[in-house]
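FORM 12-B: Structure-to-Sequence Request
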């Protein structure tokens, strides 16, 4: 946008094949935008993924959040935080609620778990490095991970909406996802 005080509508953003239901986005240093996508089809089925758009809304690249051994219904990118100096993205995986006018809302509310995972991605090429199930000392602390935030010292914190959990994410700078670890601290 040339003048942020005079925005103009350019038009709708094209969706990449196999991704839909955008939720959150972050602007990159190059002006592009990374967005989370909740599903892979119009019926709101997981997994979702990530997509990068240029400033004109054109698709630069996209990637699926599919992870071996994890139910695709749980793999719905909800929110994200960028760690450009580490070439990483931390993504929370939770199903957003559908609006009241959507007849499928009741089905998803009653029959589908909202999630308890986060993912670590490489920012430079949108490669999924690791999918981590949040562990919980009780049955709900880890459910519905919401907003990841980066603190001044580089620590990433993730909150959960079901029971107000708080998780500290460590190991994001590792060259390999094998060293990525989570569970340094949780509270309720």
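FORM 12-B RESPONSE
SEQUENCE OUT:
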């Amino acid at each position: 946008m040339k003048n942020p005080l005079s925005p103009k509508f350019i038009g709708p953003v094209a969706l990449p094949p196999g991704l839909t239901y955008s939720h959150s986005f972050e602007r990159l240093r190059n002006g592009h935008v990374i967005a989370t996508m909740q599903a892979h089809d119009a019926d709101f089925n997981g997994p979702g993924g990530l997509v990068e758009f240029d400033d004109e809304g054109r698709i630069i690249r996209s990637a699926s959040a599919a992870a071996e051994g994890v139910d695709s219904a749980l793999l719905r990118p909800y929110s994200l935080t960028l760690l450009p100096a580490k070439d990483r993205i931390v993504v929370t995986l939770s199903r957003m609620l559908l609006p009241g006018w959507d007849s499928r809302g009741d089905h998803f509310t009653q029959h589908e778990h909202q999630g308890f995972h986060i993912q670590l991605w490489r920012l430079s090429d949108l490669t999924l490095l690791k999918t981590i199930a949040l562990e919980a000392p009780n049955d709900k602390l880890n459910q519905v991970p919401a907003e990841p935030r980066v603190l001044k010292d580089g620590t990433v914190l993730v909150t959960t909406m079901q029971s107000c959990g708080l998780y500290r994410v460590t190991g994001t700078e590792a060259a390999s996802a094998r060293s990525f670890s989570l569970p340094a601290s949780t509270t309720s």
